[in-house]
């Protein structure tokens, strides 16, 4: 794989018609850059889950990505309700999704755990009433050595 | 097994035109929770579900699912069919329940892993 790329996709809350298109576009970009299939798979899954969280919970969101020869980094910033207890939200099976969202097959409480499982680094910052910023990194050749 | 053979043997109704039916079905998964499918279905699976809305197409495409089978006589929405055709994700329907369909798929030799 050669070169770097970055960009941004804008997301509209409750827009289930276009839901998934940002992560689908990101997947194509990664494939076209010749990123290894396993990295593409992990990044697309994590991006899809993050994108769906913004669609389900937020008014609007912004998915930005930065691809370098070292890593794929994705940041999802949303204008949403925020997450009061991030540790609880990270627990598999915990969800605050309303019934109509669950009826669509979302809200199983697996989104954030799926993101964590598929990425090398995950940071979630949230302010209740303002929004959530989620950032994940997948290293193309394993995490860099710790320097502490 | 090829998807076209599976359609014939299970008497499924194909809802999407111009999708690739020559792809191999190598395993199966049944779930109505999308994140569960994302986490656990394998590439090349046939996905059995009750969900018929648009977003199943993105999930299937993301995971490299060979085809989606809607059970219990569920009919996919027109926009779902359109998107699935555009993204080359075959959607089939059956009047069987998930339980009965999966039993038959299992008898054909398909497994989850």
Number of strands of chain A: 5
Largest sheet of chain A: 5 strands, antiparallel
Rough shape of chain A? globular
Number of helices of chain B: 5
Give the chain pair forming the largest contact, with residue counts.
Answer: A-B, 21 and 18 residues
Reported for the largest beta sheet of chain B, the result is: 5 strands, mixed
Radius of gyration of chain A: 15 Å
Rounded radius of gyration of chain B (Å): 12 Å
As a percent range, the share of strand residues of chain B is: 15-25%
Strand order of the largest sheet of chain B: 1-5-4-3-2
Mean pLDDT of chain B: 96
The counted number of beta strands of chain B is 5
Distance between the termini of chain B: 15 Å
Class derived from helix and strand content of chain A:
alpha+beta
Fraction in helix of chain A: 25-40%
Q: Overview of this structure, please?
A:
With 148 residues, chain A is of the alpha+beta class. Chain A has five helices and five strands. In chain A, helix 1 packs antiparallel against helix 2 and helix 2 (37-57) packs antiparallel against helix 5. Chain A is globular and about 45 Å long. The mean pLDDT of chain A is 95. Chain B is an alpha/beta fold and 113 residues long. Chain B is built from five helices and five strands. Chain B has helices at residues 3-9, 34-40, 55-63, 78-86, 98-107; strands at 13-14, 27-30, 45-49, 67-70, 91-93. A five-stranded mixed β-sheet of chain B has the order 1-5-4-3-2, with helices on one face. The A-B interface holds A 16-17, 19-21, 23-24, 27, 44-45, 48-49, 52, 104-106, 108, 110-111, 114, 117 and B 32-36, 38-39, 49, 51, 53-56, 58-59, 61-62, 79.
Condensed summary:
The complex is a heterodimer of chains A (148) and B (113). In chain A, 34% of the residues lie in helices and 28% in strands. Chain A has 148 residues and is of the alpha+beta class.
């Amino acid at each position: 794989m050669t070169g770097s790329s970055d960009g941004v996709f804008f997301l509209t809350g409750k827009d289930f018609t276009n839901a998934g298109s940002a992560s689908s576009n990101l997947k194509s970009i990664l494939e076209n850059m010749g990123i290894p299939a396993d990295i593409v798979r992990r990044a697309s899954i994590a991006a899809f889950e993050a994108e769906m969280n913004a669609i389900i919970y937020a008014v609007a969101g912004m998915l930005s990505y930065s691809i370098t020869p070292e890593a794929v980094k994705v940041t999802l910033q949303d204008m949403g309700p925020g997450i009061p207890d991030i540790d609880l939200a990270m627990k598999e099976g915990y969800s605050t999704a309303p019934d109509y969202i669950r009826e669509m097959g979302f809200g199983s409480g697996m989104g954030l755990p799926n993101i964590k499982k598929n990425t090398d680094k995950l940071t979630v910052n949230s302010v209740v009433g303002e929004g959530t910023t989620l950032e994940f990194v997948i290293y193309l050749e394993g995490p860099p050595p710790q320097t502490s | 097994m090829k998807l076209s053979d599976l359609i014939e043997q299970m008497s499924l109704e194909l809802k999407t035109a111009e999708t690739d039916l020559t792809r191999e079905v190598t395993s199966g998964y049944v779930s109505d929770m999308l994140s569960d499918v994302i986490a656990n279905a394998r590439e090349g699976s046939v996905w059995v579900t009750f969900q018929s809305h648009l977003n199943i197409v993105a999930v299937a495409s993301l995971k490299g699912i060979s085809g989606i089978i809607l059970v219990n006589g569920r009919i996919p929405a027109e926009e779902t069919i359109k998107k699935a055709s555009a993204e080359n994700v075959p959607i089939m329907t059956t009047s069987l329940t998930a339980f009965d369909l999966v039993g038959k798929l299992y008898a054909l030799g398909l497994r989850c892993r």
